[in-house]
Every structure is written in C-alpha cells, then in structure tokens.
Amino acid sequence: MGVAEQEAGTAGRGGPARGRPRSEAVERSIIEGVMRLLEEGVPLAEISIERVARIAGVGKATIYRRWSGREELFCDVMRTAEPPDPELPGTSMRDDLVIVLESLRQRGLANRSSVIMHSVYAQMKSSPKLWEAYHAAVIEPRRLMTLDVLRRGQENGGIRADIDVELANDIFVGPMLLRAVIRPDAGLEEGLPERIVDTVLAGLGPVAP
After folding, report:
1. How many CA atoms lie less than 13 Å away from 172 in the CB half-sphere?
2. CA 132, 36, 15: angle at the middle one, nearest 5?
3. Alpha carbons 56 and 69: distance in angstroms, whole number
4. Residues 6 or more apart in contact with residue 7 via CB below 8 angstroms
5. Is the dihedral of CA 184, 186, 192, 197 positive or negative?
6. Tens digits of residue pLDDT in 103-116
C-alpha cells in the first residue's frame, strides 16, 4: 500500500487529526520530500506546501493535518536532520550539563559536515518568521531544559545560591556555541564538554569555609 492509499485508509477511519495516532510512514514521506528538495538546492523560500505535497505524493490536506504551515513543517525537518535531543541521566548536575554540551558539540559537528544543514540554518536566520518558529519550537525548550538542570543543582548545593541561573546557562553553553557557530575553525574535540563544565563549576561552586 502506498503513502496516498495508506493516508486515505486512515482518513476513512476519522483522519489523523492532532491528538490522534498519526501515520509515521506518511510523515516520513513528507519530511523526506522536503529533504529531497533541499538536496536539490531548492531555497526554503521556494518550498511551498503544494510543492512538498507533489513530491511526497500526498494531498495538501494531509500536510495541514499534521503541520499548521511551512514554518512548523521546516522545524520538524530540522529536528529530523539534527542529532536527537539527549536523555539526561539525572545522576548529578555535572553529568546532566556534560550531556547537554555533548549534544551541542554533536550538532556543531553535524552542521560542519552537512552543506545542506549549514545552508538551511543560514536561510532560516534570514527569515524572521521562520527563525522565530524554530527558536520557539526547538531552541527555547533546550534552553529551559538546561535552566532546570541548573536550578536543581542550585537547590542541591552544586552551585551557590546567589548565582543567576540565566547567566550561568549562558556561561556554560556560550563556549560551545562560540566554537560550533561563530568559529568554524575551532576544535570540537571529544572531552570538550567535560572541560567546559568542570572549568565553570570551579568558579560557581560553593565557597569552602
């Protein structure tokens, strides 16, 4: 059964509206369709819902049942192209922070090795509406996850009570983002997350009596 037939059969049982089980095969076909267009060099601005529907072999309604529009669809495409968000072990603040920074390191390496991803990021940043959607759907949840790690660490005495966790978040992730985004020539070697975390914790930890 093809994607279109599978979708039709699902629709006949009430359709995969949000909140209901959705066909992974159909969604995968749509996302792969967008990636195919990107690999062919089609700019994001020229990728319409109609064009995606044609290349994925589905109707426009099928796409709109899953995504509200181009921005939401592109965010899911980028999530698929990027390394997955990490599962935090929760064993300690240090362990969680190392995992968070390792995820940033892996995304930086992926961005360096993929001409498509590098191009798409640049195009997204030049489109305020698209970048705002990506920031809200992808970047902000990651930032909130790190803030939660820092707040729990502060409650457990891992960092001083007077530390501004918003500022601490910037201090932890800043060096990795600097190397991953602003300095493409800088090293992203293994062990870098541990070095950053341990260096920063040495300055933010409790003061010995």
Report:
1. 30
2. 70
3. 16
4. 16, 23, 26, 58, 59, 62
5. negative
6. 999 999 988 888 78
